[in-house]
Structure formats: structure tokens, C-alpha cells
Fold:
Amino acid sequence: MSSSAVAASPHAKQAKPKARLSGAPTRRLLAPAVIFLLVWMIVPLVMTLYYAFRRYNLMMPEVTGFAGITNFKLMFTDPTFWDSLINTLILVGASLVITVSVGLGLAILFNRTFAGRGVARTLAIAPFFVMPVVTGLIWKNMLFHPVYGLLAWIFRHLGLSPIDWLAQYPMLSIIIMVSWEWIPFALLILLTGLQSLPEDQIEAVRLDGANRWQEFRHIVVPHLGQVLYVVIMLESIFFLTSFAEIYTTTSGGPGTATTNLPYYIYQSAFFQFDIGTSSAAAIAAVILANIFSILLIRFVAGNLNTGSSR
Amino acid sequence: MKDKSIGGALLTALAYLVALVMFFPILWMVLTAFKTEQNAFTIDPHFLFVPTLDSFRVALSQGSGYMHYAFNSVVSAVVSTLIGLLLAIPAAYAMAFFPTKRTDFTLVWMVSTKFIPAVGVLIPIYLVYKQLNMLDNLAGITLLFTAMNMPLLVWMVYSYFKDIPKDLVEAADIDGASTLQTMRKVILPLALPGIASAGLLALILAWNESFWSLTMTDHSAATLAVYIASFKSAEGLFWAKMSAASVLTVAPIIVLGWFAQRQMVRGLTFGAVK
Structure:
């Protein structure tokens, strides 16, 4: 974050003997990108933190001033906040379990050589490129609809009574949609991981008479462990911010059944105009995301130098 | 290791089945797009029907406004990617070829901004944009997309630059080329395929972006995501039209996405998985 200050004083360290022939252009080249990210990401983040400690409601512009921890108190006593926090964790946890386990299964399935593998894999990963808004509407209308939906038709043919998915199992429905979009992501990355398996080691244990399970347990799992770690961290961060799937289907309902943290913040800012409390909730969301991203960033940073010496 | 046993055949069949199940919602959307509205909204779904282009005609007609939203989507995705590259390439160039003690920190910091949840910065950005009259403004949303994709672009371009031997830059330096000349004439041509795939990924992500468009735009700068989302209250009335509009919106991206698979893994995992 000190980079903007550095950019402002270009002569600060120029005298260092390490400088290249034409002088290190690093700062000059770096400054635009750094400044842009500062203005669009860091400044707003600091402002969110500031608002979280202010009295600030767009409906009551005359009420201003320092609020201390009032906004946080209000947030912690709001049952909807707790509902949204729990919903967020359920959505993240369940989608993680589904996408990672199914994704791993599919990655193993698609790691075999068979005719038409390219086509099959290409079809299987297509959902990842579908706009979340489209996902929400297609599932809500044409698949989940209790009368005209395809699932209702299948249920009737199996002799079961059709389910009103979004009304009866709203959170499960959201989890299904999110998983449908993200199984391809897990599949693609885990498949890349499988394809970089150390073939020579596998050959060696096979010659030693290891069975499939031992081979999986002792070669595949350790190698895939790292890849799984990355998938889990990345997906957690993305699942924490799920929004469009909820916006287009349940609007957080029925009641608060599918209100997650982003949707809660959206509602308290855009419908209750309470900037203070919604900023406090936004800080909670940032902290939650940070738990995962710090772990992930540590991993990425650790890979930075080993990765570049290819 | 081609497997010709019965088990192998079963696994292959399973793989086909899974692929079909995953793809089915998309296929169903495409089929619905070629139906009449009456055919699209039936208790027993029609799998065989006389295809019609009516829904596409309706979706693309003047009254639907599709072209207005498509224009906004194209402009915001393309321009945000171009601005992003314009800022990311010099930054990545500096970090890859003129690293200082702070480079690792700067790079990691840039990557980490990708992980700030959008809701964490939504409220101040909304209020400032409102002050500056940038709500529902194409430039405003484009700049947000730029900020959203910048960490990814910097990272990807950096990783492609890292593959180029440093000697090339040093040689050009000794020959008296300026930084800009070296970048343009020596490095960019070599890294062009990588830069193109980074741009392609950014384009896909910007096109599919919906959080910022739903919260920051209303009509004049609204993208296709906002247009499609407006069907959410049309219970059963316009399924064919909704499907046709969705197909037009999603199809180009699915095709581009298929080309970008490999780069996507590299980019989205920030090089942790290759």
C-alpha cells in the first residue's frame, strides 16, 4: 500500500547501485495499476470501515456523527443478520462438499482415455460459462417449476408428487444451482492436477504390485492435496459472495431462508438505506472472506518463486 | 492405457451420461428457445416439435431493447479488458523484468485485492458514484469491471512475461532501446498469445458479471445480465423469449470459454495449478 507514496517520490532510492542501465522504470510502470486498484478497492474498503462506525441512514440525513460500536451492536442483535450468517455458511459448506466430491469423481472419470473424451469433457464444463443470472432463471422456471418444470414432470412419471423446490427446499435449490455452476470448475482444475501426476511413480508402485486403492492413497492423494486446497479456498471465496442466483430466484426468501450475507447487505443498504449497519455487515463479510484468502494468498505467495524458475 | 474391458465400457458410458446431465439444462434452454411460447409452457414437456425462429425474432426485435443491452455488454466487457491490459502490461513488465525488493509484496497485494468481496466495497462506491453522477453510467460500470479484473490480468501477464528470458530485455537495454521500445518491439510480440488469453478470460468474466451491473445500473448502462434478470417476474409468460435471449447471451461465451479452458485454470488459480 506504500506504493503510491513511493510513486510520488521517484528519486527516493535512485542512487542504489543495483539500478539498471537506464534506471529502474519499475515505479513509473507500476504506478498506474497500483493507483487504480487503490482508488477502486482500498479507498472504498477504508470508507466502508469508516461508515461502519458512523451514524448514517439515507432516510435520516440529519442524523450524523460517530456511532461507536452501535452499528455492530444493532447488527448482532438483528436476527436476520444471524440467519444470513448461518445461511452463508450452509451455502458455502454444502456447495463445497458437493462440488469438490463430484468434481473429483468426474475428474477421475475424465482422466481415462476413451473415444469422444474431449467432447464429453467440453459438455460437462459448459455450465461454468453460463451467466449466473441465466442459471437462476433457467433453473427457477424450466426445471424447478412445480407444475411446468421438467423435474415436476420426471417426478410425476416416477409416481412421486412434484416438489415446489424453491418454496419447500429453498436453500437446497440454491445449493443445487451453485453446485451445477461450480462442479465444472472443480472438475477442470482437479483434472489438470491429475494430468500432472508423476507418471513414473505410478509405474513404479504398479510394478511393486500396489493395487488401485494403494496407488490412489499413496500417490494420487498427496499430489492432489495441494490442488484440492486451492480449489477449496477459491471456491469458498466465490461462494461467500453468491448473489445473482439468489437475486433471480428467491430474493432471499421465503422469509430469510436464502438470505446470505451479500444479500443481507444489499437489502439493508438499498431497501432500508441504513449505510451504517450495512457497512458493519460488509466488514463482517470481508473478515469472513479474509480467513480463506489469507490462507490462499500464503499458498500463492509461497508458489511465486518456485513457480517462476521453470 | 486404453481400457477395453466391460468395466471400462461402463465407465465410458458413465462419463457420457454425466456430461449429458451437466449439459442438459443448457440443451433444454436451447430447445425452448426454438419453441413457440405455447410449446414452451406445457405440463408435459415437448421434446419433439417443429422448430421456429419466432422467439429469436421477438427477442431481437426493436421493442425488446436487446440490442441496447448487448451494446452495453460489448462495450463494458471489451473496453474494461483493454483498459485493464493497458494498465496491467506495464505493471507486469516492471515486476517481471525489473524486480525490486518490494515486487513480491506488490504482486501479492494486487492478487489479494481480487479476494475483497464486492459487498465490502459496494456501499462507498455506490455513494461516490451517486455524487459524481456515475450511477447507471457506462463509463462507471466499465471502470468497475476493470478494477474487478485487474488483479487477474496483472498476474496472468506477469506469469507469461516470466517465461521470457531476461537476457532479451538486457540486450535491448544495452543497444540503447527505451523501456517503451523494448516492451513494444521485443517483449509484447513474444507474449502476445499469453496476453490474448488473459484478455479472453477477462472478457468472459466481465461479460458474465452480474453483481455490479444489478446494483449500479438501471437502464441506460444496463448490461445483458440486467436485461435477462428482468425476466424474473415473468412467471411462465415468456419462457421461449427468455430462452432465446439467454441463448444469444450465453452461446458466444460458452464457445469462447471452451477455447480458454487451459488458460482459465492457470489464471483463476493464480498459477497454483498448472
Notes: Residues 31 and 45 of chain B are 11 Å apart (CA to CA).
